[in-house]
Known about the structure:
Blueprint: H1 2-11, E1 16-24, E2 32-40, E3 43-52, E4 55-61, H2 63-76, E5 78-85, E6 88-94, E7 100-104, H3 110-113, H4 138-143
Antiparallel strand pairs: 1-2, 1-5, 2-3, 3-4, 5-6, 6-7
Amino acid sequence: MSEWIDLFNDMLNQDLTQVILSNSLNREFADKIKIRPVMLKGSLVFQETLYRGSQVFHSNHTKEETLLRIAAYLQGSFRQAQFQSHKGDVTVLSSKKGRITVKRHGVVNEKEAFVNRTGILSHNRVKQYILPEGGPIDFLVALGIQTKEG
């Protein structure tokens, strides 16, 4: 048991893309759960998104709380967890008897693993518009729609 707990502990960091808990045993509790890292007030927390029917519930937890919650979910409510990270993916399967199986998938090389994470971990993400906000756009200035100041 401590082997996969150590694995979860290693995976829960800012390199984590998301965790998806699926194959629910109790659909009244949740259909699936997604967990992603977020920077709130300068500290790393993990946002849990619980899907129940057409409803969605969000909550933020520390690394330790998230670790305990994932372990509890796999022992009672869900049969599968998919950890997606820039350093590789891990699939965790829970059997009917409570046995945990861990499968590791391809490790991304270090060049691909290096990603500029600014803005990705922020809670309020910057929208990616076709035309950037706040600055002058040459063709709009030429058409007289926008001033030279933007």
